[in-house]
Amino acid sequence: MLPVTSMIPVEEARERILAYFGRLEPERKPLLDALGQVLAEDVVAPFDIPPLDNTAMDGYAVRAADTAGASEAAPVQLRVIADLAAGYVLETPVGPGEAVRIMTGAPVPPGADAIVPFEETDEALRGINEAARKAGSVRVLKAANPGANIRRRGEDVQAGSTVIPAGRVLRPSEIGVLASIGLTHVTVIRRPVVAILSTGDEITPPGEPLLPGRIYDANAYSVAALVRKYGGIPRILGIARDTVEDLTAKIREGLDADMLVTSAGVSRGDFDVVKDVLAREGNIDFWTVRMRPGKPLAFGAFTAPGGRKVPHLGLPGNPVSSMVSFELFGRPAIFTMLGRSDWERPTVRAISRDYVRNPDGRRFYARCIVTRGDDGRWYADLTGPQGSGMLTSMSAANALAVIPEDVPAANPGDEIECIMLDWEHAP
Ligand SMILES: Nc1nc2c(c(=O)[nH]1)N[C@H]1C(S)=C(S)[C@@H](COP(=O)(O)OP(=O)(O)OC[C@H]3O[C@@H](n4cnc5c(N)ncnc54)[C@H](O)[C@@H]3O)O[C@H]1N2
Ligand code: MOO
Fold first, then answer.
1. What sequence ranges are listed for the domain MoaB/Mog (predicted)?
2. Domain identity same for 36 and 180
3. 295, 328, 390: which to mutate for ligand 2, most atoms within 8 A of CB?
4. Cα distances (Å, whole numbers) of residue 202 to 184, 198, 199, 357
5. How many CB atoms lie within 10 A of CB 238?
6. Which ligand lies nearest to the CA atom of residue 295 in the structure?
7. Do the domain assignments include residue 2?
8. How confident is the model at residue 279 (pLDDT cuts 50, 70, 90)?
9. What ligand 2 atom has the least distance to the C-alpha of 389?
10. What is the mean predicted confidence (pLDDT) over 195-213?
11. Pick from 337, 355, 373: which residue ends a domain?
């Protein structure tokens, strides 16, 4: 086995990888299609929001001074001069002793400086009905303060101010804000296209019969799903056989992508065609990273026709290693291309309920389920055997517990750091 000192730490591998990536160029997109992408330029409000003072309540627009001293015992009667729905503007001013019946969102008519909600008038007693409307007057049962229940022009957004700065990820709330200033399209950093290639004579595409000794291609799909989840556009290239010709042709097919991801063939097997072809076709290094799973890793770049460099991430073949390596190295690369720097996942410190052995001085990313106990503390349970070929152990997990390089084991009761992969969905 390699001495641990000749392995590179995870952080160094990630740093070297990220040096190859930068933010991609902007594109213009319909608003809704830009969900999850990063805004490429500041968006400035062309007008105030709300554009006019308007009412926050259904009720009556009044002159606050008219309602001074009003109470249930001594109501103040006002003459109702109009009925105003949202979407309409009333030019007629509200004079002394007058009121306008008004619905939430309608602009406050001139002269009025407070809104009395229905509940504070006798309309509530009579019921909201035609009779109240026809009565031509309303009794106010409580004094209103000037400004009461009025949403001021520009209180949310002021004309000329930056509503959303460049660099912000567009979530549903940002999409709503952009729509509220009338935008239909927005300029965002485009999503990276990630070409994904599986290698190995034993690999069979799902849908085809499985011959003896063969296995189905899990990696292309798990990695493609991660690419999509993290904001990229996956392009599955298929399976390259272990021949120089096939591998070379398939790699070339992927060179119009922003990044090429391969799986398998990066360790020390007899059939080192993958390594040979990667090394010949591109400028690729083979690393051993001080982590488990995912020790062997290839990284470098191919040169596309025209001279463009296409970074290449060569994942180990074992399905869990492939996913964990993509999580640690592929996710930050995709985020960087998207213009995001927040690729670091949240962690929680949880109490291990298992004995977790870490025998060989690598950093162990153990698949576990993190849950909150009745005592309010977080607990981590391993998802079972941790072999790097056992993809169901990954499927059962919502976190990776990190056992550091220099810690030979975690005992039940020890606090361990857990990288949360999934908050929304605990299996
Ligand atoms: N003598 C040594 N052998 C191995 C070492 C080592 O250091 N010395 N490292 C082991 C570790 S750790 C890993 S991880 C694997 C990495 O192997 P490769 O990247 O070279 O990949 P393969 O050997 O071709 O495949 C490994 C394993 O994964 C299966 N596989 C491959 N592709 C897929 C796919 N698309 N979908 C599902 N499963 C896949 C493949 O059939 C093998 O079972 O090497 C260890 N060996
Ligand atoms: O390091 Mo390998 O990735 O354990 O299976």
1. 195-336
2. yes
3. 295
4. 49, 10, 9, 32
5. 14
6. 2
7. no
8. confident
9. 5
10. 96
11. 337
Give the orientation angle of helix 10-18 with respect to helix 331-338, to 10 degrees.
30
If residue 402 lies in a helix (H) or strand (E), which one and from where to where?
strand 399-403
Q: How many domains does the chain have?
A: 4
Query: Which of 1, 297, 318 has most ligand 2 atoms within 8 Å of its beta carbon, as the pocket-test mutant?
Result: 318
Q: Tell whether omega for the bond before 205 is within 30 degrees of 0, i.e. cis.
A: no
Query: Is residue 77 within 8 Å of 138, Cβ to Cβ?
Result: yes
Question: How many Å apart are CA 294 and CA 8, to the nearest integer?
Answer: 12
Mean pLDDT of 188-203: 97
**329 close to 261: Cβ distance less than 8 angstroms:** no
Q: How far apart are the CA of 389 and the centre of ligand 2, in A?
A: 9
How far apart are the CA of 153 and the centre of ligand 1, in A? 64
Q: Are residues 179 and 196 located together in one domain of the fold?
A: no
d(CA 35, CA 349): 31
State the Cα–Cα distance between residues 317 and 14, nearest whole angstrom: 19
Same-domain status, 99 and 168: no
Within 6 A (CB) of ligand 1 lie 198, 200, 202-203, 215, 217-220, 263-269, 293, 295-296, 316-319, 321, 388-389
Please tell me whether residue 119 adopts helix, strand or coil conformation: helix
- 318 CA closest ligand 2 atom index: 5
d(CA 70, CA 51): 32
Taking the centre of ligand 1 as the mean of its atom positions, its distance from the CA of residue 394, in whole angstroms, is 17
Phi and psi at 312, nearest 5°, equal -125, 130
Task: Quote the percentage of the chain above a pLDDT of 70.
Answer: 95
The closest-lying atom of ligand 2 relative to the alpha carbon of residue 316 is: 3
- Cα 47 to chain centroid distance, Å, stands at 29
Task: Look at residue 261 and tell me if it is in a domain.
Answer: yes
Ligand closest to Cα of 388 equals 2
Ligand 2 shell residues, CB under 6 Å: 292-295, 316, 318, 321, 388
Q: Are residues 318 and 362 in the same domain?
A: no
This complex has an ipTM of 0.96
Range of the domain at 308: 10-24+191-337
274/219 same-domain check: yes
- Structural contact between residues 330 and 234, judged by C-beta atoms closer than 8 angstroms: no
Mean pLDDT of 77-91: 95
